[in-house]
Write a structure and sequence with these properties.
Layout: E1 5-8, H1 15-24, E2 26-29, H2 37-42, E3 51-54, H3 62-68, E4 74-77, H4 87-92, E5 97-98, H5 105-120, H6 123-131, E6 152-156, H7 160-170, E7 176-180, H8 188-191, E8 193-195, H9 198-204, E9 207-210, H10 224-229, E10 235-238, H11 247-255, E11 261-264, H12 277-280, E12 284-286, H13 295-313
Parallel strand pairs: 1-2, 1-3, 3-4, 4-5, 6-7, 6-9, 7-8, 9-10, 10-11, 11-12
Helix pairs in contact: 1-13, 5-7
This protein binds 3-hydroxypyruvic acid.
Length: about 325
């Protein structure tokens, strides 16, 4: 019997995932580690494929699904977020779709902690000052930051990543842990986290960490009105999706010191142009979307995406279905 054909949209997918697929399938890889959308489409076999392993910043849309042909029986994205996948289309066509939720929780939570510390203790600004010969050793008020200890931390979206972050930040002896979302989460009580409305979280938090997906509801969730409500000493961290923040409003809030600082692992667009105002602001720390970028986590994501495909091809439930 012919082995099922799996189309892999990137040549840099970690080997453990590819090895798993190759045990049972024929794997067709796009021969580039950063292919354009058109290049991906061009490499889709004209005879069609049984599954798509999507590892790309581009949208998996109707054109990709159509190019895959009528045999398509599984789609897996090597990501937790899937705002770049037309999941509604896949559902309408009855094609099982999975993501790589949870295996990246620890890595993304570590990134969020790194951003909290970098912003609150002005580590980037201090480093820039050192490079420019502006380190003033005699001054007792040189480069003062804000305490994480004793602070009120608010998590927007207490899902897997939000919970992993909450566990870690508690070790910094914070004062209070708040969270907002659709409804209270059963896991919150073990974390000592208090469910509050979004408005209350925004008004009361010293540190806000966004760990929510990009949806119609969360698009521009943090906008000019919300920045007006935040404390002038507050910090906004985003490890979810850039589109959840109105970036122009953020630039204004940071420049006018409506808020103390921001730390973003995600932004719009990615990569952000180097002359974008956020890049030069001392009270804004930007990471190049490295939340899940560890050797172990990316391998685990590749393996989970492969398992999603292998299970669906056998007619079994995916381990991480959307
Ligand atoms: O997997 C995702 O969706 C990520 O953005 C990881 O950082």
């Amino acid at each position: 019997m012919a082995r099922p054909k799996v189309f892999v949209s990137n040549a840099e997918v970690p080997e453990p995932g590819l090895a798993l697929l190759r045990q049972e399938c024929e794997v067709v890889e796009v021969p580039s580690n950063n292919p354009s959308y058109d290049t991906i489409l061009q490499h889709m076999p004209s005879s069609g494929v049984d599954a798509i392993f999507w590892c790309s910043k581009y949208k998996l849309d109707a054109a990709v699904v159509d190019a895959a042909g009528p045999a398509l029986r599984a789609v897996a994205s090597m990501s937790a977020g899937y705002d770049h996948i037309d999941a509604h289309l896949l559902k309408r066509r009855g094609i099982p779709f999975g993501n790589t939720a949870n295996v990246l929780n620890d890595a993304v939570a570590e990134t969020a902690v790194a951003l909290v510390l970098t912003v609150s203790r002005r580590l980037q600004e201090g480093r820039r000052a050192l490079e420019r010969g502006l380190w003033e050793t005699g001054r007792p008020q040189f480069m003062l930051g804000l305490d994480v200890a004793g602070s009120t931390v608010g998590v927007v979206g207490l899902g897997g990543i939000g919970q992993a972050f909450a566990k870690r930040i508690k070790a910094f002896n914070i004062g209070k842990l708040l969270y907002s979302g659709h409804k209270p989460k059963p896991e919150a009580s073990a974390l000592g986290a208090e469910f509050v409305s979004f408005d209350e979280l925004v008004r009361k938090s010293d540190i806000i960490v966004m760990a929510c997906p990009l949806t119609a509801e969360t698009k521009n969730l943090f906008n000019a009105q919300v920045f007006d409500e935040m404390k002038s000493t507050s910090i906004l961290i985003n490890v979810g999706r850039g589109g959840c923040i109105d970036q122009e409003a953020l630039v204004d809030a940071l420049k006018t010191k409506k808020i103390w600082g921001a730390g973003l692992d995600v932004m719009v667009p990615e990569p952000i142009p180097v002359d974008h105002p956020l890049v030069s602001l001392d009270n804004c720390v930007l990471f190049p979307h490295v939340g899940s970028a560890t050797v172990g986590t990316r391998a685990a994501m590749a393996v989970l995406a492969a398992k999603n495909i292998l299970c669906a091809l056998k007619g079994q439930p995916m381990p991480s279905p959307v």
